[in-house]
């Protein structure tokens, strides 16, 4: 497979980089962090979206070294921001794949990355998708509990699109539900999206955790989410994912930090 061989080469050839999308507190309107998003600049094919190559990386197991590179790079970036800026972002969110989490030495890898990059667990938020919560529930609860013991925060990404069982959602030690952008984009269009978003936000609150909305693109989306007491949001209304230079100029110039 060409793309598999190319993926193997990509890390070596430094073809990966991260973009950073601001995360906004809807209480204060302030940017409180960023989500790190992986980008692959293929030498011939140009920019390839993670939705195209992450599934292949998952199948081949390449997602383990790639994900390790993402975590290490994001954490070192966070450390650099904490050193460089008087008001650094409070948290950096990183997407995890199930394969990474299931590696027998996953917790040792996390500990090594936190130690080597010298960041505190509370600076890091890990995003898992709903489908990751399906099997080996007991083992997963243990691993997530160990992450929490390191003060790492946990989010369930794309909530509402997978098939997580509500019967054990409350057993996972999570901090955020991220409302999938499919439900946000439908707000104000006359369908049932607002009701679904409202239900997910309310579910988060019933569980004693926070809700984040993704894909917030319009003032109507924002007003509805504020009315629903959604705590945080991301989306093109605030900012698209930024390259490193743009993220840094935002950290530097944003008067609200
Ligand atoms: O940024 P973009 O919309 O192209 O991302 C597409 C998908 O790829 C999203 O679902 C996002 O969660 C996922 N993704 C982005 N970066 C990473 C990463 O570093 N690791 C994993 N596992 N998924 C990622
Ligand atoms: O699955 P995940 O939530 O990790 O996906 C994040 C992806 O969503 C990013 O790749 C980013 O490019 C994309 N994204 C971020 N904000 C918006 C938005 O407002 N609208 C749309 N359509 N996509 C967005
Ligand atoms: Na995500
Ligand atoms: Mn998502």
From TrEMBL:
Highest taxon in the source lineage: Bacteria
Keyword line: Coiled coil, Phosphoprotein
GO biological process: phosphorelay signal transduction system
EAL domain residues: 1-255
Name of the protein in question: EAL domain-containing protein
Organism per entry: Scytonema millei VB511283
Organism taxonomic ancestry: Bacteria, Bacillati, Cyanobacteriota, Cyanophyceae, Nostocales
Full-sequence portion shown in this chain: 351 to 607 of 607
């Amino acid at each position: 497979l060409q793309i598999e061989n190319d993926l193997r080469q990509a890390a070596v050839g430094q073809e990966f980089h991260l973009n950073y999308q601001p995360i906004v507190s809807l209480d204060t309107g302030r940017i409180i962090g960023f989500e790190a998003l992986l980008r692959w600049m293929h030498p011939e094919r140009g920019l390839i979206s993670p939705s195209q190559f992450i599934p292949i990386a998952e199948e081949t197991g390449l997602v383990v070294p790639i994900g390790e590179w993402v975590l290490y790079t994001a954490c070192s970036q966070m450390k650099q921001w904490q050193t460089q800026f008087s008001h650094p972002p409070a948290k950096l969110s990183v997407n995890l794949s199930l394969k990474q989490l299931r590696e027998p030495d996953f917790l040792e890898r996390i500990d090594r990355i936190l130690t080597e990059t010298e960041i505190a667990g509370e600076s890091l938020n890990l995003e898992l998708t709903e489908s990751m919560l399906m099997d080996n529930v007991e083992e997963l609860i243990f691993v997530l509990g160990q992450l929490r013991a390191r003060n790492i925060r946990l989010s369930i990404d794309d909530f509402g699109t997978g098939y997580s069982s509500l019967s054990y959602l409350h057993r996972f030690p999570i901090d955020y539900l991220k409302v999938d952008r499919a439900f946000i984009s439908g707000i104000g269009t006359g369908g049932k999206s607002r009701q679904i978003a409202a239900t997910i936000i309310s579910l988060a609150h019933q569980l004693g955790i926070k809700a984040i909305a993704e894909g917030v693109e319009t003032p109507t989306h924002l007003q509805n989410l504020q009315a629903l007491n959604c705590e945080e949001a991301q989306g093109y209304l605030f900012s698209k994912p930024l390259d490193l230079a743009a993220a840094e100029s935002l950290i530097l110039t944003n008067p609200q930090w």
